[in-house]
Amino acid sequence: MDRLLTVAAVSARAEPSALEKAIAMQAVNWSSLSALVFLVYDILLTTADEIEFMWPSQWTWMKLVYYMMRYIPVGVQVSALFIGTEITPQFHYTHRDCINWQIWLSCAALFIVIFADLVLVLRVYALYVENHWIRWSVGAVYAVEIIMMAIGVFMGIPYIEVDEICLTTNMPWTYLFFFGSAIVFQLFLFGLTLYKFIMALKEGWGTTPLPMLLARDGTWAFFLLTLVIFAYGSLHFVSNGAYAALIYCWLISLYSFCSYRILLNLRKVAHHSHPSSFSYDGETGSLPIFTTVPTLDPRAVEYLDAEPEQPNTVRFRLADRASRILQSNHLRRQESSWQSVDSLIQMDPLHQPR
Predict the structure, then answer these.
(1) What UniProt keywords apply to this chain's record, in alphabetical order (predicted)?
(2) Per the domain annotation, does 354 fall within a domain?
(3) In whole angstroms, how far apart are CA 122 and each of 149, 228, 330, 340?
(4) pTM above 0.85, yes or no
(5) Most buried residue among 83, 181, 192, 300 by CB atoms closer than 10 A?
(6) What is the CATH number of the domain that holds 77?
(7) Is residue 290 within a helix (H) or strand (E), and if so which, with residue range?
């Protein structure tokens, strides 16, 4: 097995020259700095939202995940600046030091990807709140992804090869498990999100705040994360080794960015919208009354006769019984989705709506 891993790790590509290494160090240095600046800038940009929507909430484990995914990646990126960049030669690292640095960065990337994917899993849970089979399936696939990524990293760490300035010269083939499982999992989550959104549009509730938010965030997160993980893996196995770390900090930045942005956006939409309530007297046959905030799906207003009664509420009465039945089904779906997002806001992903 050791022989197989060693042979697979050795590439036919030529060893980078001293000039190529110097150019690569500069490129890695500037790429790492750019990724760090991007992340810090976005953190500063969203600080006001964090203060408004995150600080007042109670401390739970999901809130802890939010802060970990927002600030730990900054520290990881700062540490990554010390290897494979222009300042590396000043520290006179030994070969053992370089290997230890690579172990740290590999484990940090694994940690960040696992917790970022947890946030994405909760986003899908919010869409399939009533489908327990899908929820269990997503959880099982997520567990398989973690196992495959861990196998890829921990089996490959002993066979990482570095040079005197800690540039990775050869990457074990087992890291394909890490990159491949991450990409496949993103495709899986995106497929579930897209399917649910299409079905929601057909059923008439796809433009309500929660489905729109989850579909939008799911789309840009899928393309960002798939692109960066594919680029990172390609550089490791296609480049001559000198540029292997060019995308590492961008991987960390974008996974962090997607995670805390999704949680902040959920907080925002929950702050500005609330579940609708429904009441109907079946004995008297009186028309049902729906009470909700003005951000209810605008198409619902087309079926209802809007009649404001309070500053923060709008009371709607249906024109006929058929419209009443249609709208009650719509609002029950919306309320069911809001029960799921409430579980996220309360940082309890295992919450089951009663």
Answers:
(1) Membrane, Transmembrane, Transmembrane helix
(2) no
(3) 20, 22, 23, 9
(4) no
(5) 83
(6) 1.20.1070
(7) strand 289-292
Instruction: Give a yes or no: residue 305 inside a domain.
Output: yes
Domain ranges, residue 194: 2-272
Longest Cα separation, the chain: 88
Secondary structure letter of residue 14 according to DSSP: P
Helix axes 175-203, 95-127, angle to 10 degrees: 20
pLDDT in tens, the chain (354 residues): 554 444 444 444 556 667 777 777 788 889 999 999 999 999 999 999 999 988 988 888 888 899 999 999 999 999 999 988 778 888 889 999 999 999 999 999 999 999 999 999 988 887 887 788 999 999 999 999 999 999 999 999 888 888 888 887 777 889 899 999 999 999 999 999 889 888 878 877 656 666 777 788 888 999 999 999 999 888 877 765 567 778 999 999 999 999 999 989 888 877 665 444 333 333 433 333 333 333 333 332 232 233 333 333 333 333 344 444 445 555 555 555 555 555 555 544 444 444
Residues 175 and 36 in one domain: yes
User: Is the CB of residue 247 less than 8 Å from the CB of residue 228?
Assistant: yes
Q: Where are the alpha helices (DSSP H) in the chain?
A: 2-9, 18-45, 47-49, 61-80, 95-127, 132-156, 175-203, 209-238, 248-272, 298-303, 321-345
Do 297 and 266 lie in one domain? The reply is no
**Domain-embedded: residue 352:** no
Tell which of 217, 251, 272 closes a domain: 272
Total tally of structural domains belonging to the chain: 2
Is 353 domain-assigned? no
Strand partners, 89: none
136 and 230 within one domain: yes
**Residue 300's closest CA among 334, 258, 273, 261?**
334
Question: Coil, helix or strand for 87?
Answer: coil
